[in-house]
Design goal:
131 residues, alpha+beta, Yope Regulator, Chain: A, 6-stranded antiparallel β-sheet, 3 helices, elongated, Tir-like, YbjN domain-containing protein
Amino acid sequence: MKNKNFEKVKEWLLDYEFNVTFEDESQSILIIEKESNGIKNMILIISDSILIMEQFLFEIKNPTESIYRTLLQKNRDIVHGAFVLDGSGKRVIFRDTLPTDNMAQNEVMASINSLGILVGEFNTEMINMSK
């Protein structure tokens, strides 16, 4: 069965001049980039019910309680999405999810643009955390 959301999301991304660097419709995966927006190797998984967006941001070299507290506090400022950690507790990922039942192009773009804003506002802190 063809995933109608996959083609819809791909078309929206192309409308906004994102580069699709990888696609696998059978697995419902797109990888996109638009470096001018701070997007590099963002993974989108598009199912019939949910769109998951994830982008690796950085690895915490010297984890401390203070770093984790800062990340949690910054989550409050992020309009769409959040910082999450992978299983190692050191790899920081931006993640957002949207239901696909009535998903609109502006919602998808707002989520992706939220990452660009986050990277712009929090870049110095992320670099320091990765040292």
